[in-house]
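Fold this sequence, please.
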Amino acid sequence: MHTVKGKTYPCCTSVTMGIIGGKWKTVILFHLMSGPLRYNELKKLIEGVTERTLSLQLKSLEEDGVIKRKVFTTKPPLKVVYSLTDFGKTLVPLLRSIAEWGDFVVENYSD
């Protein structure tokens, strides 16, 4: 058993999936690999995600220390930018491998 930030996982792969698993987290992280993005930019890039789901997934990734949320309040309107943390950047090779495998599946096993 492995314990990370108060959560217990049965094996090391479940630690990874606990942090980046689900339908939208890897999509969010994939887009943030290119650099910081505002909420509305992410929303436009991720077709089909609801505002509620995107907000919840961003909050979860932030709580896990994978992304950071920076609020700029110097002048209206309020600006919020999301980016990968140093910890989140350690996921880039994994995310690239997942994307490459997805491309392979699409190219070789699509109907």
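The chain has six helices and five strands. The domain at 24-109 is CATH 1.10.10.10 (Arc Repressor Mutant, subunit A).
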